[in-house]
Amino acid sequence: MSEATWSEAPMVGDHLAMDLLNTEAREDGRTIDHWRDGGDVLAWLARHGIALPAADVDRDALLAQARSLRALARRLVVRRKDDGSAGDLGDLNEWLHAHVSAPHLERDGAGNWTLARIARGTTSAALLGPLAEAVAQLLVEVRFDLVKQCEHPECILWFYDRTKAHKRRWCSMAVCGNRHKAAQFRKRGGAGTA
Which residues have C-beta within 8 Å of that of residue 150, sequence separation ≥ 6? Predict the structure, then answer.
């Protein structure tokens, strides 16, 4: 997987918590962090529809806290996959308690009413609260047998398998699925005999 393939963190997880984990990828055995600075975190939050504060936020603190939350989410998800428990939830609860939000009624692009939650504060915790909530929802609400990691041996991306048959194997059919198909083709000796 080249950085040209994923110039931004991929949105292939089919769940916000999975996309949070996917802000780190692997290429040639090294980890690629799509969050190089606080601006990257803000851009990623905006891509996921998370409302950004009108006031300036400390971007260095945001980057450090976002990476910390991502590491916590990875530990909880991996532990849940490995043994069915998530381990100590105290750190996640601290994130959840720091996230103060309020309901907000608005119209969407089609003119329909929607009810959303907006952060009540400009701190990094207020910005990252929806991510902590997504991790908590993942731990509580989803079938964890459908939380999967890409089967390509060089890929570390995660996804929630929402396919009808629940047989999804790749983070992206266009990237890892295609690499697998190309490798199988090469194993068979190319185009075959005429």
Answer: 156, 157, 158, 159, 169, 170, 171, 176
